[in-house]
TrEMBL record:
Function (record text): Binds lactose. May participate in the apoptosis of adipocytes.
Domain Galectin: 27-161, 190-314
Name recorded for this polypeptide: Galectin
Gene field: LGALS12
Subcellular location(s) of the protein: Nucleus
Any single biological process term in GO: intrinsic apoptotic signaling pathway
GO cellular component, one term: mitochondrion
One Pfam family cited in the UniProt record for this chain: Gal-bind_lectin
Alphabetical list of InterPro entries matching this protein: ConA-like_dom_sf, Galectin-like, Galectin_CRD
Record SUPFAM superfamilies: Concanavalin A-like lectins/glucanases
Main location: nucleus
A GO term for molecular function: lactose binding
Keywords: Apoptosis, Lectin, Nucleus, Repeat
Amino acid sequence: MSPGEKLDPIPDSFILQPPVFHPVVPYVTTIFGGLHAGKMVMLQGVVPLDAHSRFQVDFQCGCSLCPRPDIAFHFNPRFHTTKPHVICNTLHGGRWQREARWPHLALRGSSFLILFLFGNEEVKVSVNGQHFLHFRYRLPLSHVDTLGIFGDILVEAVGFLNINPFVEGSREYPAGHPFLLMSPRLEVPCSHALPQGLWPGQVIIVRALVLQEPKHFTLSLRDQASRAPVTLRASFTDRTLAWISPWGQKKLISAPFLFYPRRFFEVLLLCQEGGLKLALNGQGLGATSVNQQALEQLRELRISGSVRLYCVHS
């Protein structure tokens, strides 16, 4: 992009807040656009072995110090007792409401991945891939615009994502995979093995940040002979996203162009009978046809271009 060039407007539903890595705790940040049903916050970190007390994750209605803001959802693991547990509550008008308690969460001395998935009436929380609790809202979710993290915790990453738009993938939420920090496996160009090919229900996840002076972003699926029956390419020169056939034919995808400098994005590809469904930043963008035999013969996911990779999973 040239200096002063204007960005095309992007719908709010397509915008993802960039992840934050290794923030200093206590950590407080604005949630871009606030919380709404379909949003997910991912917390990746470690509870030190010598931690003696607790930590808390607060989804707040504002960030003032005095008066203290309302807290719509207070998630508070406590491990200073012989029976570690989690307290959840709501702070409204300076008063704590009735607390809810869940036992059996031993995190001290171990790494973890916590997912907060916000629905229409309640938030669901999973820990290390296992559902742990659900908590019904006591304050409107639309009032939440701030995330606060406090206590005995080392935070490796905080991610802000949208839910999986594929009904077929609802059994195992595909976005719940950690960011891989400083991994040589994520150097671009990146090659990711698909030893068993692709089968119906399998989901490919790519999360990345567009670099400052981008040229292109290309994701291709290749067989053992290095043929690419499936290629997805974002062109920064003409601001298009397209499927590219093995013969070089371009099929444009109707969607806002998201791949601007310093923008974070997530690509989901869901394998189904006869093709692949595409979602970008949690928004479904249709499908491309690929016969099942070709999908089963795929052996490599290859990524190239002007991006910094944070997650590649299949």
